[in-house]
Amino acid sequence: MSQNELSHNPPNWYALRVRPNAEKAAAETLRLAGLEEFLPLARTRRNWSDRVKLLDIPLFPGYLFCRVSLDIPYRIVDTPGVLGFVGFHGTPEPIPVAEIDAVKRMLDARRRLRCMALLREGQRVEVRDGPLAGLQGVLARIKNENHLVVHLHLLQRSVAVELEGDAVIPYA
């Protein structure tokens, strides 16, 4: 009997927290248990001193997705490597199908993908890579490009520099 036949509620997509480096094993265990899982993988190049290797690594480290009805959540949380559902105040929060479909379409496009922190215009950020690493400022959109804006308060002026989308992280 499939998972859908056992439940009374329609299945939704949920994010699952998993142990570090256990994403692939947990996804395989869920799949073998007859559950619909989705582990987006991004191809990346890793350089070692003696070779270069292409690896498929989780796009969202520490997470995977499962489409399930919450009538039987114990089947998921008892899976080796799974720490629990992602949600609010202990209640799993479903993920809209459109968001899962968007990630699948981006994977199908076979382009280079990166997981990024959610950034908003006006948010304080810090540059994490490159010659500007460690520089802090405010994120601004100028002509559809991300810029780091640094304020010179004494002069009542600001300076903006164009950034790569993944070059900054939120700054607390």
TrEMBL record:
Residues 10-107 form the NusG-like N-terminal domain. One of its GO terms (biological process) is DNA-templated transcription elongation. CDD domains: KOW_NusG. The keyword Magnesium does not apply. InterPro entries: NGN-like_dom, NGN_dom_sf, NusG-like, Translation_prot_SH3-like_sf. It comes from the Bacteria. Keywords: Transcription, Transcription antitermination, Transcription regulation. Pfam families: NusG. The keyword Transcription regulation applies. NCBIfam families: antiterm_UpxY (NF033644). This is UpxY family transcription antiterminator.
